Input
Amino acid sequence: MGVHEAGELHSPGYGGVATVPSWLRAPEDLNALLPTLWSATAQRSGSGSLEVGGVDVRDIAGQYGTPAYVLDERDFRDRATDFRDSFARAFAEVGGADVYYAGKAFLCTAVARWIQEDGLFLDTCSGGELAVALRAGVAPERIGMHGNNKLDGEIDRAVAAGVGRIVIDSLPEIDRVEAAAVRHGVRQPVLIRVTVGVEAHTHEYMSTAHEDQKFGLSLAGGQAAAAVARVLASPALELRGLHSHIGSQIFDTQGFEVAARRLLGLHASVERDHGVVLPELDLGGGYGIAYTSEHDPLEAKALADQLAQIVLRECRGLGIAVPRVSVEPGRAIAGPSTFTLYRVGTVKDVPLDHGDARRYISVDGGMSDNIRTALYDADYSCTLASRSSAAAAALCRVVGKHCESGDVVVRDEFLPGDIEAGDLVAVPGTGAYCRSMASQYNHVPRPPVLAVRDGAVRVLVRRETEDDILGLDVG
Output
């Protein structure tokens, strides 16, 4: 692989030559919003600015500052209930289904309350996420607890709280959950996470079901079967079923079909070898969303219908009853419901090889509020938000204010050629993982999360301040 002597950012096709990705096309109308990228209420106002939830982004920036995560509450909740209803309908005649919102995508107390109010369950994967759920008043029996290295204190708190299920991720963890259950005098419901050997077509760091990775118990290596036997032998544990998660940003159900076949094979062997009918089966999440025009995600109804057909077909082939299925969408609910609002600072054209130039649009945030571009090579879109423009399109790169050459927010996008300092730009699809993975790099405070609905703005998570940062420094 050829590497530019000055680093990857200067290599051909990345920074050395102003090339355009094959999927990116200059739009006929730079002011138009591609519906698949934005929440349902996002639109251009009469004056040309971006409006969401009935609120003009100029008013948001004026009152709350930038950068800011702007969450469309109605869109978020509609997506959640769409998953709930779609899976309920698809599995109504074949065992039923539960939808667990994957809190790791984005979680705060308000979101946790929405999830409960809208009839979903909540999946947590750390003591901190569990603390948010409990503080929000989520019924413990509607909470699941994940994690490949749950601390003893986290396990103890989950068992003491009465969470509805703990997903066992390793053989040693069985003993630790069992000990906590005995200590609290309860019979703890558990699932066993199985690595089924299916590698979703996604970034290596987001593929979670192939054998050589940290999650779960190997199906091929016999670990999963050993875990089943060990849990069934414990009077303090109740084995509810098996769990699988094959990756993230998945746009079809082919991988789920293979995973379900292998998982249900183990499910059937438990019934055959142990005489135990497991009542549940969790197929995980990982459903993709549109970050750019190249993405074409499945709607919740299509996902539910296709997964129901897969599970029913496999169960019929094995001659077993269809268990109650659960799924764990996170990104698919939170991601499109939020955009990040930035203010433009420096704008400059950088000369490149062969006489080309690239326009760099610097904003007041960056990799501290969206690490996914640097971490996963993720692509994002962007629009001029504070006004409309009739200027010709210019190929731009939106970058942050951090002291890193890799501080890129949007690698390639066509924006109006007259964009200038003081303009507002909006990056859609940032509701999942951006705030969750945000940092204080360069001691930059993290942005707020603002919910908009019916013309009103509500602060869900306040903006961090320098006092917050300094308050942790006891030296």
Observations:
- Residues 1-16, 203-209 have pLDDT under 50 and may be disordered.
- The first strand starts at residue 43 and ends at 44.
- The chain has twelve helices and 21 strands.
- The chain has two domains: 19-72+336-471, 91-329.
